[in-house]
Amino acid sequence: MNHLIILRGNSGSGKTTIANLLCDRIENSFLISQDIVRRSMLKESDGPNCETKDLVTELVKFGLERSKTVIIEGIFRAEWYEEMFAQIVPLFDSVQAYYFDLSLEETTRRHQTRKEVHEFGEDKLRLWYKKENYLKCVSETKIDAQISKEELVIRIIEQCS
How many angstroms separate the Cα of 61 from the Cα of each of 30, 52, 65, 76, 131? Predict the structure, then answer.
């Protein structure tokens, strides 16, 4: 049985942290980060016509052939990436999708606790922020600020079992 874990939400909400923890704890997993694909590999801006969708789809297929669990994390605005997810989701036996639906204030607070150098500040977070940006092609579990990192990681791993 193969699994797809989707982690989506606003910038700074904790998706990458959770994705990395999951990848460390789930044997034979394959992690695809939107930021790495879009910013580091393709060096492109996000938008409705970006090539990120094509490369993420190919990476998902690559991961599916080689791993039991594929983890995808990123902002992935629904209006730009819905079609991509509609193509990816049916490839898997099991799909768990999570949307980090945090307030702008909580997102900003989490962003400020990051150890990495901040490439952008609160003004950009405010500009990019989009509340309740759910996909239609898959049911997403809403993640709020009340759940700890450890609780969320355990919950996701248990749902993959």
Answer: 11, 14, 6, 18, 30
